[in-house]
Specification:
16% helix; Diaminopimelate Epimerase, Chain A, domain 1; alpha+beta; globular; 7 helices
Amino acid sequence: MTGPAEVRCMLMRGGTSKGAYFLAEDLPADPAERDDLLLRVMGSPDPRQIDGLGGAHPLTSKVGVVSASTDPEADVDYLFLQVAVDRSEVTDRQNCGNILAGIGPFAVERGLVAPVDGETSVRIRMLNTGELAIASFPTPGGRVDYSGTASGTAEISGVPGTAAPVVIEFPQGANPLLPTGRVRDVIAGTEVTCVDNGMPVVLIPAAALDVTGYETPTGLEENATLAARLREIRLAAGKLMGLGDVEHTTIPKLSLLAPPTDGGAVMTRTFIPVRCHTSIGVLGAASVAAGLLVPDGVGEGIKEVPAQSDRIRIEHPSGFLDIETSVDAGPGGSAPVVRRTAVVRTARKIFDGTVFPRPADTAPTDTAPTPAPARPLGGNDGSAAR
């Protein structure tokens, strides 16, 4: 496989992630050729991704592929691709709500959607899941305003400074909120709640895994005992949630829950699947928020959800993320149903131009890093983060 020697590309920050955005027509139509090209664009496999656009972390090794939609309910189609850092692997088995934040502005920039003077809304079909999202963002004078200087700014944890708000609303999804049909499951001897409000997530009380939930992401990643337990839970949960064998995928996500420390509803530590997220993904947070509203879930006794409010603040290692959501009991006492989910994100165009992929004949072999030795729990890992 060779592919094009250069490709039109826009590098954008979407929420707390960073990725390369492409028009589908600028990439090979064959998925295998496309994935080979994207590995070379991002510099994988290589722990540093030194020879490509990737930033040596799953959060900065992402791709959004956009095209005009044939669905009358959508303006554009969005395919999310996660490019592995240290493996020759590109997967579409998950979605990404952070990269989603840049899809609307990108669609306007590439002429797929005509902007409106003031604010533009773009209806997005997420091909990974088949679900829809509506992104609204300022376009004064018919141009995307990334800075928000002309229309107001928003600040999100995990991103320095402020930028124009991108409001993303998710209509009610078709998938059941509780994929296993139960509020609680016992997996590998641990009580969990499996939820899917746009992203399959397993909610786990941190204390049930002998951690506090306030440790640093690095400290948790270096805990070999915890990693083994999380892997066991994830593999079993994947089958229970109807996802099949998830050995080589990044879903379901695992979110550890602990009592909040700064006025939120809950503190989280989320794994994707073995790296601990320095914040939390948008769709993952949407699932966590909805899961907290399910009566008798594992969040009981941990969560502090405000009464008479649809806004759920999810605390994470670098701050918080606010999710607006509501969950009602299903008809006749059936399974709970999510009525609405919305979130405010920001996005920024970093560069727009041409990327030159690494030549096909210089591809390295997979270079998965050696796991770091386990560190003891407690001490500075827990108290400092708390």
